[in-house]
Design goal:
The chain is α+β, with helices and mostly antiparallel strands and 81 residues long. It has a domain at 1-56. It contains 3 helices and 2 strands.
């Protein structure tokens, strides 16, 4: 778990959801990593969803999203696979 949390922190992820049964592995994670991250211990998927969906998704500017052309427009879907 130490390596996974370190990789997450290096990637800019500051929150992690881990199974409660892995709590025993937390002492192996250096304090400087634990201090920079918010670690949620969960026992079931309901808890995961409550944490993961606690706030709305970030807004995406409309001009940043481009629709994928449909087959009806004469574009083969194979082109995008």
């Amino acid at each position: 778990m130490k390596e996974k949390l370190l990789a997450a922190l290096r990637a800019g992820i500051t929150e992690a959801i881990i199974p409660k049964e892995n709590e025993k592995d937390l002492p192996e994670v250096p304090e400087n990593i634990r201090g920079k991250m918010k670690i949620h211990l969960v026992e079931n998927m309901d808890q995961v969803l409550k944490i993961a969906l606690e706030r709305p998704l970030p807004e995406i500017a409309e001009d940043a999203v481009q629709p994928i052309p449909s087959v009806a427009e004469g574009i083969s879907p194979q082109r995008y696979l």
